[in-house]
Write a structure and sequence with these properties.
This protein is α/β, with parallel strands linked by helices. The protein has a single domain, classed as Rossmann fold (3-Layer(aba) Sandwich), CATH 3.40.50. The protein has ten helices and eight strands. Strands 1-2-4-3-5-6-7-8 form an eight-stranded mixed beta sheet, with helices on both faces. Strand 5, helix 4 and strand 6 (about 175-180) form a beta-alpha-beta unit. Helix 3 (about 110-125) crosses helix 4 (about 145-155). The longest helix has 19 residues, at about 1-20. It is globular and about 50 Å long.
């Protein structure tokens, strides 16, 4: 009996070990991808916020990435970065892109609250799509990068953590890493640039989102670091177009240097010949951006 019990225990331990053993993420792998959509919450105005799920074929568990769209806080939705999302998912990453509240519906911090909720929701749901919810990464574009930086730096901020998740009340919004394309790391600097260039639509995007106006300082990642606020520092990848006249490269580089000086791990990459939204068009620099994001994910999920 003792020998039989011993063999049973060994077998059980072997099964547990196989279950807990994760296959390393290979950025060069190729998977078929299934796309589906679910509602993850409603805004105060009653609008459904949807999540688009890019699920690699296979049992996983796959690394899990939350995509936060751009649109100057006033436009776009979960479909904005579909080519990037598909490319990353096809390498074996569960990618979930979410809608966020737009500024005409509700100003700051509504969309940051959505993102905070989305992280907690995704942690609790990732396994149902064969994702690993234990280490969530974020991909953010433009204003979505601004949201991602705030999310990363203030994961337990009570103002951002305002939407309850009754199904998983003890799950927090901490994230493991953030990859970004053209993030608005200094919204005041972008506003001042829009004023210089007389871009009325962009000026209005800022005045609609930052209400009251002083919130442009309270929620400014550059100023947060300069105020020496106590923040959470996660690894950042910042991909910036050299020809970007929307978020100036000099402003972006300053943020990267400030983040690094504060003790953060940041990789800043300049893409020559590229404007603000270069990844929207096929080409060598878009391919380079996709490979860079995948390599960044591998670095942090395989560590």
């Amino acid at each position: 009996m003792k020998r039989r019990d011993f063999l049973k225990n060994v077998t059980a331990l072997g099964v547990v070990a196989r279950i807990n053993m994760k296959t390393p993420y290979d950025p060069k792998a190729k998977f078929d991808v299934k796309v589906s959509e679910v509602e993850y919450r409603k805004t105060k105005a009653g609008r459904s916020l949807l999540a688009r799920i890019y699920q690699p074929a296979g049992t996983g568990p796959f690394p899990t990435l939350l995509d936060l769209h751009g649109g100057a806080w006033n436009a776009k939705n979960r479909t904005a970065e579909e080519p990037m999302d598909r490319a990353i998912a096809a390498s074996g990453v569960l990618v979930v892109a979410v809608d966020m509240t737009l500024a005409p519906e509700a100003p700051y911090p509504a969309c940051v609250q959505d993102a905070n909720f989305a992280v907690r929701w995704l942690k609790s749901k990732a396994a149902s799509w064969n994702g690993d919810g234990s280490k969530i990464g974020v991909y953010g574009s433009s204003s979505g990068g601004h949201v991602a930086e705030l999310l990363a730096m203030r994961p337990r901020d009570p103002g951002y953590n305002a939407i309850p998740l009754p199904s998983a009340p003890n799950v927090d919004a901490t994230i493991a890493y953030v990859a970004m394309r053209s993030p608005i790391s200094n919204p005041l600097a972008r506003f001042e640039n829009a004023e210089r260039l007389k871009r009325d639509a962009m000026i209005k995007n800022h005045t609609t989102f930052f209400q009251p106006w002083d919130t442009i300082h309270e929620s400014n990642p550059q100023e947060i670091l300069e105020r020496h606020e106590k923040v959470t520092m996660v690894p950042l990848l910042i991909m910036q177009g050299a020809l970007d006249d929307n978020m100036l490269p000099s402003i972006q580089e300053k943020f990267a240097k400030t983040y690094k000086a504060a003790g953060g791990d940041v990789r800043y990459e300049l893409f020559e010949g590229c404007e603000h939204e270069w990844v929207a068009a096929p080409g060598p620099q878009t391919d380079r951006a996709r490979e860079m994001v995948k390599a960044f994910i591998a670095r942090h999920v395989n560590a």
